[in-house]
Automatic annotation (TrEMBL):
The chain crosses the membrane at residues 30-49, 56-73, 85-105. Keywords: Membrane, Transmembrane, Transmembrane helix. This is Uncharacterized protein.
Length: 121
């Protein structure tokens, strides 16, 4: 597995781990949506690990949806700006922005590497 592909899978695993810590802190009425999102990241990690070429598009889409969703949610913005509760704010910032940004970057690099190797073969 290439270096960029390993980094992509590592970022997806890190997102899943942070999300698993964050699910118990969230609103219980959104538990099904939270589990669905976490299972999608786990599935994307497995698909990306297998080097399935169609994993790049969902990676971009889900990362952008999470970033936009965190940005437009008044409750999330309040938690992140006041750091109250502190642990929720850390999970939202790390999982919702830092790791999603890394997912976008690593996914773009893996896609470039895939296109480069596909053209040379």
């Amino acid at each position: 597995m290439e270096k960029n592909q390993k980094f992509l899978v590592s970022v997806l695993c890190a997102i899943s781990i942070v999300g698993a810590f964050g699910i118990p802190l969230g609103d219980p009425k959104f538990i099904i949506q939270a589990f669905s999102l976490e299972f999608s990241f786990i599935a994307l990690a497995a698909i990306s690990f297998k080097k399935f070429r169609y994993a790049y598009i969902p990676n971009f889409i889900i990362a952008l949806v999470v970033i936009i969703g965190n940005t437009v949610s008044p409750k999330h913005l309040e938690i992140m700006s006041t750091f109250h509760p502190f642990y929720n704010a850390i999970v939202l910032i790390v999982g919702g922005y830092i790791l999603q940004g890394l997912l976008l970057v690593s996914n773009a690099r893996s896609l470039q590497e895939y296109k480069k190797t596909r053209v040379t073969q």
